[in-house]
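[Meeting: bench + compute handoff]

Bench side (C.D.) handed over the final construct sequence. Compute side (W.E.) agreed to return the predicted structure before the next meeting so the bench team could plan truncations. Sequence as handed over:
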Amino acid sequence: MTNTIELSWKGQMLFESVAPEGSVMIDAAEEVGGQGKGLRPKAMMLTSLAGCSAMDVASLLKKMRAEVDDFKIEVVANLTEEHPKVYDKVKVIYTFIGSEFKKAKIEKAVNLSVERYCGVMEMFRQFADVSIEINYREEKS
C-alpha cells in the first residue's frame, strides 16, 4: 500500500498539502518569510504522532467500555541544536478528564496504542527516545 500527497506552493513560504482525505496549510516562521498561515513541518510531525495515538485510544476506550468525558494529548519534544535539527527526546502526555475512571482499561488502551497500533509512534522510536505519561483530571460532568 502506498500513500501519496501533493504539495503546492501558494507563494512566499506557504504551501498546501493535499491528500485524498483533505488538505492542510504549511507555513514557515515569520523570521524566515512565513506569514503564520499554517502549521510548521515539525509541528505537523508532532500533530501526526498525537493524532495517530488519539484515534487508537478513542477507539479502544469505546470497545473496552471505558469512556471518559474528554481527553487531551500534549507532545513535548526536544529539538537538537545542530543542523539538521531533529527531535531526540519526545514525551507524549495523555490527560483523561471525567470521573470514576476505569484506570486499568484506560492504561491498557494507551499501552496498546503506544506498543502495538500507532505506526507514527513506531516511526518516532526510530530516531527519538519516546516516553509517555498518563494523568487524570477529576471533573463532574
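W.E. noted at the follow-up: The chain has three helices and six strands. C.D. will use this when planning the next construct.
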